[in-house]
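G., the chain you wanted modeled:
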Amino acid sequence: MDEMAKHKNRHDLMENEEIFLDDPEEEIAEDEAELAPAAVAVDELTALRAEVADLKDRLLRALADVENIRKRAERDRRDAEVYGATRLARDLLSVHDNFDRALGNVTDAVRGAAPGLIEGIELTQRELVNAFARNKIVTINPQPGERFDPKLHQAMFEAPVAGTRAGDIIQVMSEGFTIGDRLLRPAQVGVSSGGPAMLRA
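Predicted structure as tokens:
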């Protein structure tokens, strides 16, 4: 009897016992809560990668800018070294021309009367030409018969001359000069317009 009562009581307890199932929404929320840190980590990783790519791009651009500035500064330094004396050189060209004119008017009588003076003028002109050469200032000295080059020569007049072609240099009035690869002053020349009309026929 006691055994049967125990069995019955156990059965009654089982019938009265409530079975609680987990709430599905609660399970999903728990799963999401578990996955949330992983999703945040992925988002942070993506954001960090984007930031690294942006910083890398900005760094490369900054390095390119620095390299361009360095090259520009180097080019400016070279230009200043070569062309810095341009204004002074232009002013000294007239001194060179005056030496040429003075020496061009020296006769044998003058040279005989004052040889030391003439030699001093020649030495001074030579030293001026050497100073030009040290500063990359080069003389343009065309000769009659050469072709006229508008990049280096300035035509002061044009005249028909027998035995010449149009564009031939027939007279040189003053030398020209370049500094580096730039024209400082063109050589002043006279240019042939060709032979006289009757010779051209």
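The helical segments are 2-16, 24-83, 86-104, 108-113, 115-134, 197-200.

Shout if anything looks off.
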